[in-house]
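ESCALATION

Customer reports they have been waiting on this structure for their group meeting. Please prioritize. Original submission:
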Amino acid sequence: MSDTLAFYQDSPHPCSYLEGREASNIYPDPNQPMTNALYSHLIQYGFRRSGDLAYRPHCLNCQACVPVRINTAKFTLNRSQRRCLQRNQHLTVSHHSASFNNEHYELYCRYLAARHIGGGMDNPTEQSYINFLISSWSETSFIEIREGKRLVAVAVTDYVQHGLSALYTFFDPDMKANSLGTYAILQQINIAQTRGFPWIYLGYWISNCQKMKYKQNFSGIEGYINQKWQALNDEKL
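Update from on-call: job pushed to the front of the queue and completed.
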């Protein structure tokens, strides 16, 4: 990639995941127009997006952030995931284009207020919501999950050329027992398998970060380590 696309690194800043550490990211050349095709290539090298911006952690003396994805051909439901599907079988799922929706935004605010207190995301604005989740170049769907008419979860999902990217999921904090985050990923896996996509990208996983532990519960999980994708076995987890 470096032969055709320049990358730039930002200045060190406090790490959002590991207390007491500094983090930095690399970004593709902002003068290079970003497209879904280019992002489909970059995501294979561990990149993610936030709004229109593609990035990847690039920290001095730290490689704790591991890009992870699910190999859909190797995924099988475990007992807990079967119970999750059974518990939520009364819910309905629908797909919507990526645009600002006040009902979505109100649920997003409730979710952040309950789940990310003091984490820098718990005082959102409509503009910060748009800047984070909506992109001018990505192929994105807001997957709604409802209980009757009531919106209980939204899974913001990017479609790349060879899979799906689970960008962000937010849900009703009063329904914690329903494991709606897991349910959303199971829905994304089902979509990928139905459409013949081999991968579900889940962003970054850090072994010492409790909020990311759920990612290792999915079979077929792979990590981008030493510049290649490889299965995350029990030793690496």
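Sent to customer with the following note: The CA atoms of residues 80 and 116 lie 25 Å apart.
Escalation resolved.
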